[in-house]
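Researcher: Please predict.
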Amino acid sequence: MKIITVKHIIDTCGNTDVIDLTGLVISELDKSYIKNGSVLIFVPGCTASVTTIEYEPGLKRDLPELLAKLIPEGRHYHHNKTWGDNNAHAHLRSSVFGTSLNVPFENGELLLGTWQQIVLIDFDERPRKRKVIIQLTGE
């Protein structure tokens, strides 16, 4: 079994910025020459997430609007009082989505659904340089 780990830095805008990572993951899979296995995509930190979505303009607008209703900014959060910052909503959103995603692949192809893309979502209130770790495991 082979394991390959690569790291990338992704510039984000914050504020529920949704970035398509699918092409990056496919590129790393192609370079690996691993044909069957799984790929782990992980973002270190507590204010961003990795998940799947249909990456299209409507959903890129719908997702932040939904989260603004479910976990709004500017509300009284204990975290903000504890640390004197204003990003508790980003921590909470990240905890709901999670910071990693595992996708199987077969014959060198990700086994994603037709309209399913891998995305990084940055929930913090400012632009960031996010590290994204891609770990391919297989043979």
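Model: The longest helix spans residues 57-70.
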